[in-house]
Write a structure and sequence with these properties.
- By secondary structure, the chain is mainly β.
- About 5% of the residues lie in helices and about 45% in strands.
- The protein has one helix and ten strands; from the N terminus they run ββββββββββα.
- The strands form three sheets. A five-stranded mixed beta sheet has the order 1-10-9-5-6, with no helix packed on it. A three-stranded antiparallel beta sheet has the order 2-8-7, with no helix packed on it.
- A hairpin with a 2-residue loop joins strand 3 and strand 4.
- The radius of gyration is 18 Å and the shape is elongated.
- The two termini are about 35 Å apart.
């Protein structure tokens, strides 16, 4: 996923046992910015049906890079104990995504078909 610098980042992970969502787990999250750990063993929140979430505060999203979250549980019965997801922040012109649609339209109105 891609996002801009300075906004909160929501990471999600789905835990299953034999393919079915696993509820009532204790799940922690480590977050890395590039190769530097910026969050250690934060608590994930259970959404339901095996889905767990963690939101990285906007002040920790302070620069361009790849923000990776590793969700961890010690429950032995899940299909996979560690799950990963990532946000790409400030990459490939993402900082321009908030340009107003009107400004873009004004620049393209004069194009000839």
């Amino acid at each position: 996923m891609i996002e801009q610098i300075g906004v909160s980042l929501s990471f999600d992970a789905f835990y299953s046992t034999f393919g079915s969502g696993q509820t009532s787990l204790t799940v922690t999250v480590d977050v890395y910015k590039n190769s530097t750990k910026i969050v250690t063993a934060a608590s994930a929140t259970e959404v339901g049906d095996g889905l767990y979430t963690y939101t990285l505060a906007s002040n920790l999203n302070d620069g361009e890079g790849v923000y990776k979250a590793i969700f961890k549980t010690e429950t032995a019965t899940v299909d996979q104990k560690h799950l990963a997801c990532a946000w790409y922040v400030g990459k490939a012109g993402i900082e321009y995504l908030d340009a107003s649609i009107a400004a873009v339209k004004a620049k393209t109105d004069n194009l000839q078909s």
